[in-house]
Amino acid sequence: MNFVGTFVLAQLAASSPAAAIRINQLGYLPDAPKVAVFCSLDSVGIRDFVVTDAGGKTVLQRRADPAKSFGPCVLNYRLDFSSIRKSGDYHIRAGAITSPLVRIREDAYAGAADTLLYYMREQRSGYNPLFKTVVHTHDGIVVDDSTRAGKFVPVTGGWADASDYLQYVMTSANATFVMLMAYRDHPGSFADQFDARGLAGKNDVPDILDEARHGLTWLLRMFPSDAEMYNQLGDDRDHTYWDLPPTDSADYGWGKGKERALYPCTGKPQGLFKYKNRSDGFASTAGKYASTFALAAALYRTRDPQFAARLRQKALAAYAIGKKFPGVCQGAPGRAPYFYEEDNWVDDMELGAAELYALTRDRKYMRDALDYAAREPVTPWMGADTARHYQWYPWHNNGHYEIWRNAGPADRKIVADYYKRGIQAVVKRADNGFRIGIPFIWCSNNLMASFATQAYLYRRMTGDNQFRGYEQAALDWLFGTNPWGVSMVIGLPHDGVFARDPHSVVAKEMHVELTGALLDGPVYSSIYKHLLGISLHDADEYAAFNTGFIVYHDDVGDYSTNEPIMDGTANLSYLLAAISERRH
Ligand SMILES: [Ca+2]
Ligand SMILES: [Ca+2]
Hints:
The protein is of the alpha+beta class and 584 residues long. It is 35% helix and 11% strand. Strands 3, 4, 7, 8 and 9 form a 5-stranded antiparallel sheet that branches. Strand 3 and strand 4 form a beta hairpin. Helix 3 packs parallel to helix 5, helix 6 packs across helix 7 and helix 11 packs parallel to helix 15. The N terminus is likely disordered. The structure holds calcium ion (2 copies). One calcium ion binds next to helix 7.
């Protein structure tokens, strides 16, 4: 470390707080549970807290509830101010600490789901509205296929998965599905301010459908015939260069900046070099194609009948392939050992079957959906301490909810109970001050968003409010009620504390704020320490809060906690749309 670095760290240490009050910076709905968390880094505790209104008048004085320590927070207290239901601006004071501005608003979440779409547009491959040009125009050339290797297939489009430019059907299909589902259930939460290309200006299509259709177009290209089901575009050879999308110079063996490698599902382990995945079927990918196309076919039935007819035919074809070739089609590693290690496929086939039943009303699909659901009632990370990278994906199983929408009372109860078991498994681990029970594996924010979404869906399905506090705690965590006091969505709220230095070449080189991007989020410090090629570029402004079992760094060098993720961002759109809708 050089002298300047030492000096900066000394300065940080001198100004380090001994405690903090963490809140949801986006705000609280008037009728929602409202709990701030007092995190003390030493053993100085508090007894009471007060809440003052915008005029400085005390509106609540209460006893702080001591809670189990968590991460860097040696002492933790829950400051419950749920009794305040009047919209307005407030501050919370406890000991010598004053909170940031606390907002209680009917419209606290208005427009939030649309804000996520700024990041989705920025991630577009094909025409990209940030660069105002077409990026990755040559895609792609088939690899790892005995009969088609070397063939060019036109698959331009879709979204870059994260800050690299790899593209996966696994994450892109789920992203598309969730956006379609968010629009179907909560159309009032979305505006029309951008056109199909993602440029400013309305086109009489809600922007969430513009974005979903961008995904659908790419997915149709990735599944051009029954004999060709593609799964991945590019591999980690992408990481050799840290380029902007229009000047991407990755070399897949036929020259820098040329076509990217296109991987089909093959039903066999894949990996062109040292590392191999554990693929053994098609169903994880086929199920995702089927569910996304089937839901889209229903939504576009009157809007665009021709498009809908094509989607319906593709949904049926994909589902049949999944039935014929059960098993998983995982991400393919390149030179590095990391890949998407999805191990479950019955969840994907369940969702595909549920959507095909909704589309066709053929009972055989409902029977399939219920059979698949019974084989994996709980998404297996729920209740676990760890998991492999994207081992259980999607992070929550929308299939149970989609069955529920069209099932009779007995089956409705069965799938609602499946959700309940998953929620209970997480809640059992959530006896800390933040009420958080997820494992802090890579992409923990996805787990947080999915837990909150599952808890929301369960509440909507059953009217049972017993987990509402945990649902709210997960939502609050994402918007700042976490040890670092950081909103995990860039730009939400625009005047909040959020990542200023994300792991993104676009943000770094273009000097743009990646508004709407959900970050990977905190990980176990043991994971962080063992990742390859990771180091901070600047002094850690959150060092005082990185002393516990989990860490988060607002640093371009930390690709494990501070990298924006496309699929997680899209996944959050449902929950934000749901909680904002009736407030418009
Ligand atoms: Ca639009
Ligand atoms: Ca799966």
